[in-house]
Specification:
By secondary structure, this protein is an alpha/beta fold. The protein has 4 helices and 9 strands. The structure holds 1-O-pyrophosphono-5-O-phosphono-alpha-D-ribofuranose (PRP).
Length: about 180
């Protein structure tokens, strides 16, 4: 069972959901009555995204984008990011928010920001559940951050190792023997 592979829980589901509600409040305050397009970065941010959008009362359109990054494969820090599936409509003149699960090296977010800014949105901001500033290789910042995490192998609440643990309901640290096997 996946629970046996977790060294410790860093943030429980309850703690995560409470923090996400705070982020939603901040976002709501900052945007006033404006409409928003929120972009879920598949797959890692799906659970954070679902929780976050529920607590924003504005008119929000949900969009999805899939990118694949090779930046944090342990031996490869080339920073190459590939667009697998784009959002479904133009964003020119709209308020757009990228919703990420984690900012690690920063390559993915950098790529996404460039990609979307080139389409001339009215505004572009970033919400990320987690931030690991100690791992940053390119300069890049989020506007709404849930938690800063230490440099440990975190999984759960959407985050995976080898496509597993996304359904672990908390953010946990993976046992070392699992990812060094
Ligand atoms: C993960 C995560 C971020 C990115 C962060 O995605 O969801 O998008 O890596 O890393 P970076 O800052 O070093 O670029 P991944 O490519 O593993 O895909 P996933 O969302 O499907 O897990």
């Amino acid at each position: 069972m996946m629970y046996d592979d977790i060294e410790k829980v860093l943030y429980t589901e309850e703690e995560l959901n409470a923090r996400i509600k705070e982020l939603a409040k901040e976002i709501t305050k900052d945007y006033g009555n404006e409409d928003l397009i929120m972009v879920c970065i598949l797959r890692g941010s799906c659970i954070f995204f679902a929780e976050l959008v529920k607590h924003i009362p504005n008119y929000v359109e949900l969009e999805f984008i899939t990118v694949s990054s090779y930046s944090h494969a342990s031996t490869n820090t080339s920073g190459e990011v590939r667009l697998i599936a784009d959002i479904s409509k133009p964003i020119q003149g709209k308020n757009v928010m990228i919703v990420e699960d984690i900012i690690d090296t920063g390559y993915t977010l950098n790529y996404l920001k460039k990609l979307l800014l080139a389409r001339n949105p009215k505004s572009l901001k970033v919400a990320s559940l987690l931030d690991k500033p100690s791992r940053r290789l390119v300069e890049c910042e989020g506007d709404y951050i849930g938690f800063n995490v230490p440099n440990e192998f975190v999984v759960g609440y959407g985050l995976d190792f080898d496509q597993r643990y996304r359904n672990f309901p908390h953010i946990g640290v993976l046992k070392k023997e699992i990812y060094t096997r």
